[in-house]
Amino acid sequence: MGIKTKHIKDVALIAVLAAVLFAQQMALSFIPNVSFTAFLIILYTRLLGFKKTTMIVIVHVIAVNLLSPFGPVIPLHIPSMLIGWMLIPILLSTVFKGFKGVWTLALFGLIFGFIYGWMFIPVSVFALGIPFMEYLLMDLIFELIMGISNFLAILWLYEPMHKFLLNQLQKYYQ
Amino acid sequence: MMKFKDTLKLIVTLSVIIVLIAGFYFYRESQEINGPGEIELVIASENEEVLYEDVLAFNAGDTLYDVLKVNFMLTCASNTYQADPTCSSSFRFFADGSTIDGKIILGVKGDTFEIMTDWDKTYLAIQVYDNSSYRLTTKGVSGYTLKDGEKIRIIVTKVSGW
Description:
Chain A has about 170 residues and is mainly alpha-helical.
């Protein structure tokens, strides 16, 4: 396969996987903080690597803020959102590079639910003036919901999805 | 036959779900039921000038939004955060253990005053008087549980940086 063809395939793949990420988040948005977003970003990181996953995350954050029927997050929170989701490829490509088993990734997803929530604290406290303790306490239940949904999604779906997508990717790049 | 790792996954999943349901149940049970009663409402401008101050009655189960809607003309946020005087748009919030269709208020108009915010540069902060100072509530107008005798202030607040 030529380099040009491979790049075209890469771009198409990034677009399709970002669309999947966006669609599932919108479809599940009626349940607060429950989505497969963290699970899919973890899956993409393990299958596609850091660079392509970064592109998918950037497209996803832009799409959520431009196209969501629920409206964008307030502009000050967009960097928090981007950094929050980017932490998955960054951490899984560096300090947690060895996390490949389903249980370690599920635990990572559980803890990530809290970390993602904390990403919004600096802007909320320092820029919007929301009191730190009130914010932290009110957000805990949402972080817990996100952590548990991440944990269960990874626990049950990671292995079959990884196997399925790996197989599809091999066919796609043949 | 089910493999050991699948059995383990199933046990962990069921344990998590049971703990979650139990936690949710006890959380809901611990929530207070409000009213009927009275609250003291203060509406203030950005520089803390009091524009309105009065005692308002509320019925059992009323939210702060219900009380405001009865006593004032409200301008809410539409789904794109534009001013919507009809208050027809709702936002899905999580409050007291369940999701609610909540409102975001941008403006309040009374007989003698009017305040308006734009969400981007200014917003209406809801504060409750506690220990001789005002502190922000952790819930919005549709989720806040009113308590008899408490003092609430709605104040125009500038978003930092503007």
